[in-house]
Amino acid sequence: MKAVILAAGEGTRMRPLTYSCPKVMLTVANKPILEHIMDATIGAGIDEFVFITGFHENAVKEYFGDGSSWGVDIQYVTQLEQKGTADAIKHADGYVDGHFIVLNGDVLVTKDYLKKLVSKKSDAVITAKEVDNPSEFGVIDVSGDNVTQIVEKSSNPPTNLANTGIYLFHDSIFEYIDRTPLSERGELEITDSMQMMIDDGKQVTYKLLDNEWIDIGRPWDMLDANKLLLQNIKSNNKGSVEPYATIKGEVVIGKNTVVKNGSYIEGPVVIGEDCDIGPNCYIRPSTCIGNHVKIGNAVEVKNTIVMDATNIGHLAYVGDSVVGKRCNFGAGTKVANLRHDDKTIKSTTKGKRVDTGRRKLGVIMADDVHTGINTSINVGVVLERNTKPGEVLVK
Question: Are residues 204 and 237 in the same domain?
């Protein structure tokens, strides 16, 4: 059985993090999202992959190559124009035979669940998850194990069984995709193809997801995914820890990284390669630090993703944030992460202010942002790439 992973989208809701990087290559727990999905699929016994790529696809191809570094085979199919999920899956026609699974490149799922999914042999299987807010999802109506109807986001959903976008198909699905009309959104929706199968009397069943599932749709979802993935790490020190530094809990330290005296690291934390940590800094749980990162004197970082080649200068505080590549925090930069009125925090996605539902959220910082000394950044702020908040230019 092969796995088809949909990784062609632009990830517009994840901007500004995705202007020059596909969403599937954003890092959580110091690995691209796509690698976590592939690892789970390999753990389920699958070693042949078809990646449907498009937006900045070279980043995917250069990182994964032919898959030999993971002991698997990867084939690539380019989707030049994103016209819906059915169109994306159709690109796998001719690359799969018999049953195959389909995974979205931004949905994390465990290997244990995928093992159960690949054992099913229906014409199609939808992975469903019980949710508290079904009106925000496409949901399925069921009778026994069979799906009777697929309903896109509705103000009066028939069930609380959300469609997670994880499927098992037989290659007969391609016949139905060929007959699928454009939806009201002007796209080819795989749910419409599956509804046609149901109407034709084909066996479309569902399997209930009984463990963690995270749909990484917006930047702050990365923090939830990061926290979940870090729960499973085991300490591994390939760097150098000076004698008066403190390591507590599960902490991974990469090659050629130096943790200097006075640093206090409280796991779970992952630190990449060639990093300079401290002295006298405090790295708190659920933080991941990429490669070639500098964390300076008297810096505190908590529950934050720090990507490659970023420098957080001395006397800075960063919490509950996502920080892109090659950023530089001027000395004394502080990131607020809690509203004074204790309400949930609003942030910006696709140019609109939305309620994140989070009590704590700091900054979403794109690549190559440089802050001036003593810069203060308010809760939920989104900083575009190459901006320089707090700096005064002297001519």
Answer: no
Q: Would you say residue 164 lies in a domain?
A: yes
State the DSSP H helix or E strand holding residue 222, giving kind and residue range, or none if neither.
helix 221-230
What are 58-111's pLDDT values in tens digits? 999 999 999 999 999 999 999 988 788 899 999 999 999 999 999 998 888 888
Residue with tokens 């795989």, as numbered in its chain = 190
**φ, ψ of residue 382 in degrees (nearest 5):** -110, 120
User: pLDDT tens for residues 195-246?
Assistant: 899 888 888 898 888 766 788 889 999 999 999 999 989 999 999 999 999 9
Chain mean position to CA 30? 11
What one-character DSSP code corresponds to residue 181? P
Task: Please measure the distance between the N-terminal and C-terminal CA atoms of the chain and give it in whole angstroms.
Answer: 63
Give, as one character, the DSSP assignment of residue 360: B
Kindly list the catalytic residues.
Answer: 314
Inter-residue long-range contacts of 228-234, CB under 8 Å, 24+ positions, other chains counted = 228/108, 229/28, 229/29, 229/36, 229/108, 230/29, 230/267, 230/268, 230/269, 230/270, 230/285, 230/286, 230/288, 231/268, 233/29, 233/267, 233/268, 233/270
Domain co-membership, 123 together with 237:
no
Amino acid at 226: N
Say how far apart CA 219 and CA 222 lie, in whole Å: 6
Q: Note whether 199 and 260 are same-domain residues.
A: no
**pLDDT category, 247, cuts 50, 70, 90?**
very high
279: left (phi over 0), alpha (psi -120 to 50) or beta: beta
| CA distances to 3, 28, 78, 153 from 60, in Å | 16, 16, 11, 31
Reported pTM: 0.91
Q: How many domains does the chain have?
A: 2
Q: Are 388 and 372 in contact (CB under 8 A)?
A: yes
Q: Which amino acid makes up residue 264?
A: Y
317, two tokens: 């505080």
